[in-house]
Amino acid sequence: MKNNSNISQELLETIERYYKGTMPKDERTSFELKLAEDQEFKVLVEDIKTLILGIENQSLKEQLDVFHEDLPKKISVEKRRVGAFPHLGKYAAAAAILLAIAFLWVYSVPQNERLYAKYFTPDPGLPTVMSSNSNFEFYDAMVNYKQGEYKMAIDKWDVLKTKTPNNDTLNYFLGVAHLANKNETTAIDLLKQVTQNSNFALSDEAFYYLGLAQLKQGNIDDAKKNLKHSKTDNSKALLSKLND
Amino acid sequence: MREAYNIDHQLQLITAIKDNNSIALKAFYTSNYPKIEALILKNSGSQDHAKDIYQDAFISMWNNIRNESFVPQNDTALQGYLYQIAKNKWMDVLRSKRFKTTQSLTEERTLFLKQDDTIEDDDHDKKLNITMTAFKDLGQPCKDLLKTFYFDKKSLREIASDLNIEETSVRNKKYRCMEKLRATVLAFKS
């Protein structure tokens, strides 16, 4: 822009009329003739045109910002969800769910429950030889027990228990079956009774399962006490975890 | 017949946009934004990018309508034209080396877009940008008056009646404001 040329009000309005297209034909013809001949005049007209264009462009720009503020926000957010990470979204959601599950597992499941889950596997049971029918009912239930049908085994053994309430082997397996069947309280009663007899062949196992049942119930002190009586490897390992 | 009506509708729209009819501008702005935002978000852009690119495209479209370099061919011609401008502008950003190297830094990307707005090779665009900045920072009374006259296209008489002052005084004020703006632009350049 040329600093030395002042623009009169009249000239400004002439250029405005030319720019707006409101100039009469005669005036326009002579105006365009001057534009073609006078380079300095041409530059001046261009400068004014740029000023007007600048005002309009900036006005529009500011108006668009106002329009943008008024855009429905909801559309914007929805589109963002759909558009921003069309694939990542699914994986992120899946990862978040997995993390949440892991978090819940680690922090909401108490440590004793986790140890119990890690260490508890039901006693493999006694070998069942069907020919030795001296104690058919007992071994019949043992088959159910070994197949994981703890409820069935318990029902059958309960019948036997009414006949021989102090049979340690029966009480031991009944106890482990109750424990496997998630009935810790009954399991503890039965196993406590079994552990009274220190000559019982499965005494170490009985103390171990008793300790596990108490651990499951959150009774850590009693669990430790009973686990100490057991010489099995599992008992020792579990005990050292509990003392950590 | 329907096609004729549709073209007619486009021509009406274009006339309204040329007149800076704010209702038409707003309706057109609002209805075309979601599609372009979706395009940019889908192609590693942010909502800020979408806004910048869309407004840039919208202003380009508006200028091209006014200088007659756009003529509608069918009913959705202008919508498609706007979308195409925005898409091309976004492709330019994506292709640019600086965008690629600063991809993870959203702030830098936004900054880059803003810088890109002001760095223009074209001498005319450079002048236009200086004028826009000067107008942006002009005192509010002058700004309002010039906007009402040049952008809203109100006559001196209408403005005079709105402000409850003499038409001659509006005319003089407008002239003084233009001189002020011109002086600011000249100061920028020197």
Question: Overview of this structure, please?
Answer:
- The complex is a heterodimer of chains A (244) and B (190).
- Chain A is mainly α and 244 residues long.
- Chain A contains 13 helices and no strands.
- Chain A is rod-shaped.
- Helices cover 80% and strands 0% of the residues of chain B.
- With 190 residues, chain B is mostly helical.
- In chain B, helix 2 packs across helix 3 (47-66), helix 3 crosses helix 4 (77-95) and helix 8 packs across helix 10 (167-189).
- Chain B is built from 10 helices and no strands.
- Classes of the chains: A mainly alpha (244), B mainly alpha (190).
Short structural summary:
Chain A has 13 helices and no strands. Chain A is 75% helix and 0% strand.
The whole-angstrom Rg of chain A is 46 Å
Average of the residue pLDDT scores of chain A: 84
Level of helix content of chain B?
Answer: over 70%
E-strand count of chain A: 0
**Low-pLDDT segments, ≥5 res of chain B:** 114-120
The end-to-end distance of chain B, rounded to whole angstroms, is 58 Å
Low-confidence stretches of chain A: 75-84
Q: What share of residues of chain A is helical?
A: over 70%
Overall shape of chain B: it is globular
What value does the Rg of chain B take, in angstroms?
20 Å
Number of helices of chain A: 13
Number of helices of chain B: 10
Structural class of chain A: mainly alpha
Helices and strands of chain A, in order, run as HHHHHHHHHHHHH
How do the helices and strands follow one another from N- to C-terminus of chain B?
HHHHHHHHHH
Helix-strand layout with pairing:
The complex is a heterodimer of chains A (244) and B (190).
Chain A: H1 9-20, H2 25-37, H3 39-69, H4 73-84, H5 88-108, H6 111-119, H7 136-146, H8 150-163, H9 168-180, H10 184-195, H11 203-216, H12 220-229, H13 233-243
Helix pairs in contact in A: 2-3, 6-11, 7-8, 8-9, 9-10, 10-11, 11-12, 12-13
Chain B: H1 2-18, H2 22-42, H3 47-66, H4 77-95, H5 97-101, H6 106-118, H7 123-136, H8 140-151, H9 156-163, H10 167-189
